[in-house]
Amino acid sequence: MSERQPDDNGFLALPIAVLTVSDSRTEADDKSGDLLVERLRKAGHELVEKRIVPDDIYQVRAEVSRWIADESVRVVISTGGTGITGRDTTPEAVRPLLDAEVEGFGELFRYLSFQDIGSSTVQSRAVGGVANGTLVFCLPGSSGACRTAWDGILQPQLDLRTKPCNFVSLIPRMRER
């Protein structure tokens, strides 16, 4: 990411990929994926690619793996597959890929979500972490959950100007060993 520089206002646009995990959604009705694309673009980030894959652990893992191996992608955001039914396997697909899990992401998401949906938030297994220097966030499939995660966590943490700290300032050091 060294080739990218902050703009005159101190904002650094990030290249982001969006993955919708669903057996039933299509490009025509992917409200959650579309919401994330709209929000990230409005914030000034760049959409690298948006895809939809079925609720299949290996297809999810393959797509996320492809993006974390791609030097042009710095953030991957998925929506869907974080519940507790038999087909909800996004956390199982992604966790083995992570070099470090950001436990506070899921905790904060559920805290913020509780304000909107009460105790139903315990059914979410939202996950965040770092894989090969790429930030990876797995969100629930509802557009309300995506809005909560973007507005309350991702937008400020993906902004270099957020103080006292943010994810963007750490990206150059995420591959340190």
Provide a descriptive summary of the structure in words.
By secondary structure, this protein is of the alpha/beta class. It has a single domain (15-173), classed as Molybdenum Cofactor Biosythetic Enzyme, Chain A (3-Layer(aba) Sandwich), CATH 3.40.980. Helices cover 34% and strands 19% of the residues. The model has no long low-confidence stretch (mean pLDDT 95).
Write the layout of secondary structure elements.
Elements: E1 15-21, H1 31-43, E2 46-53, H2 57-69, E3 75-79, H3 90-94, E4 100-101, H4 103-117, E5 127-131, E6 134-139, H5 143-157
Parallel strand pairs: 1-2, 1-3, 3-6
Antiparallel strand pairs: 4-5, 5-6
Helix pairs in contact: 1-5, 4-5
> What is the CATH topology assignment?
Molybdenum Cofactor Biosythetic Enzyme, Chain A
Biggest sheet, spatial arrangement of strands = 2-1-3-6-5-4
- Per CATH, the class reads Alpha Beta
How far apart the termini lie comes to: 18 Å
Count the DSSP helices: 5
Mean pLDDT: 95
How much helix, percentage-wise, in residues?
25-40%
C-alpha Rg, in Å? 15 Å
Strand/helix succession: EHEHEHEHEEH
Total domain modules: 1
Class from secondary-structure proportions: alpha/beta
Biggest sheet, open or closed, and with what strands and sense?
Answer: 6 strands, mixed
| CATH superfamily annotation | MoaB/Mog-like domain
General form: globular
Give the amount of beta strand, in percent.
15-25%
The low-pLDDT segments are none
Structure summary, number of beta strands:
6
Named CATH architecture: 3-Layer(aba) Sandwich
